[in-house]
Amino acid sequence: MATTYRTCPRTGLQFDLDADKLMRWNAVAGVLWLLVGGITALLVILTRWPAIKLLPADQFYLILTAHGIDMLILWIIFFEMAVLYFASSTLLRCRIATPWLGWVQFWLMVVGGIMTNVAIFQGGSSVMFTSYVPMQAAPHFYLGIILFAVGALIGTGVFFGTLVVAKREKTYVGSIPLVTFGALTAAIIAVFTIASGAAILIPTFFWSMGWIKEIDAQLYRMVWWALGHSSQQINVAAHVSIWYLVAAVAFGAKPLSEKVSRFAFLLYILFLQLASAHHLLSDPGMSAEWKVLNTSYFMYFAVLASMIHGFTVPGAIEAAQRKKGFNNGLFEWLRKAPWGNPVFSGMFISLVGFGFIGGISGVVLGTEQINMLMHNTFYVPGHFHATVVVGTTLAFMSITYLLVPTLFRREMLFPKLCQIQPYLYGISMIVLSLVMMGAGTLGVSRRHWDMAFSGAPFQYEWPGSAYLMMGLTGIFGVIAVIGGGLWIGLVVLSLLFGKKLDGGATSDKPTPIPDQTVAASASHSGSEEHVGVPGTVVLAITLLVCFVLYYFVNWKYLSEVWGLS
Amino acid sequence: MSAILPPSERLWWKQPIAGQEWAWIGIAFVWAMIMFIMMVYWHINGKQNLSNEVYKTTTEMFQAKTDAFVKENTIRTETEQNIPVVKPNAKGEAFLLARLWSWYPILELEAGKTYKIHLSAVDYNHGFSLQPTNINIQVIPGYEHVVKMTPTKAGTYAIVCNEYCGIGHHTMLGRIYVK
User: ipTM of the assembly?
Assistant: First the structure.
């Protein structure tokens, strides 16, 4: 039970040293996997770029499998473990529950991640991230993911335990902060997700060992996607929490309404799990009723939640800025925002890119009938690079610019490059998503080595515009890899060689929230009047107009294809 | 009331919600309902809905049905591999089998006529991606999916496999003629 706390002199945040170390190790492990994922990303792009076509087919599918696993699972979930520990122990200013279990989490995830990668790079497990049966990978491919998932489950347990500790030891009064509430949402969805993963991957592991004869291919897809898609909803809950966190730290912003924002998170918990259906809309095994109800998260209630966050996050920033006197016109609050601070610029590009590109494309893609225009085309990775990369990864990158000084106690090196990085990465990734979706709209397949179909008995020539889109995918993909590589370089170099910063006073007791710090400056709310947020209203209406137009354009496209019934 | 601190109003759920926020929630809710109703509406009035007619099958059963269909209705063969070109009979029933790494057989259809195309795979998952019209349907072993299709325009169409199915995935190209 004995632990030591330190209070960061720059932010006023208080770290339990056990949690501090766990966060650092998880974040670093995440960054290392991002490095592996980034190298594989470059190889994937250079192969799909028709003018280059770097790798032979077998290596391409191997690398693509590694890219999916290392990015979507390993990088993101390691980082999310750090986020969970931060949102519980640091924000609630309490000790972390059972730190030794935290280390079990960490090492299980390390061992599992390495095991699955060994299986992939041995060559016998090029089954893609989704590993659809009856295509079979080596047993340790599945076993690695299972161990990793058990680790993650233990991590969520430590998080829940820490919430209990804080409550029992009364380190805060009233309700938990909104960011912690968002992290709680992520953790609850994670438990559901991991349970689904266990329900399908454990039998699949048995099948690969020869202990089970057959797994139904449709059933696999349904249960697997309750892992595959729902885990992306953990990311949504996590990065929306980070948006609120950045708004609070960079502006002292308060949620416009605690009630509305928390209710929106609650909608995530209630409805996001249904998203498994998004991948089954063109499958034979489910009825149209099932598809319509599930794909829409039971009447779009989770989309409603995201639209609410999309309003309340910039709204909170606008309100905070207006209170500081940036009151001229609709957008002075935004023009005068700290665009040179990568914590803010990264977060804001993440917010806009996720909303306009990832969100809209996701809903259109998830419309039952329209899905037939896009299922398994390049549109799908285009969509999720806008959500998981622009949304989640960029949000994680931006918060790291805050974590390096406060958590790792190092000053970021090369501040000019740090300023450029979110723009370079965010904008190139947004363009990349758009051109990928463009290629997909023209029909180009995802997970496909050769769009010229060499060796096929017939010829099919994609339109020239499809080749143009794939060429642009290559160019912007390479720029995005440079932007991501720059971030890894900046972070790693700063951790190794950045100026050491004062970690702050330590104490063996948690201290109450001090005055005159960033953390505290936002605490005085009192009962101020509501501040109008006209700029945010304009942004939100712009989003809605784009959304409505793009949605109906796709119905128009659909009405022009062959009759289907 | 900062997002990283406990709400300063202990009874935060009793705080009023501002008018602008209510308005946006209302707009978003209406839009959500429109999108939901749109899918239902299209099932009633739209001409592009994916069929719900599905049967459990086995590799052997589907292979046998396809072979019988090809034997009865072949009109010619094409390419060095003698791939049969099959014209469905007056009832418009057709079978299309996905396997490593081909679509079997080639179909010859007529524009404006409605066909019942039985789709299944005999090994892995495959993806039926009809180009350039761009219709994409998942094909799963063990499930016989009966899709009614009405070609709109004459031409030569390609069936790209767009579900990863191993090293020869990119060579898996089929063909449909529409006269």
Answer: 0.95
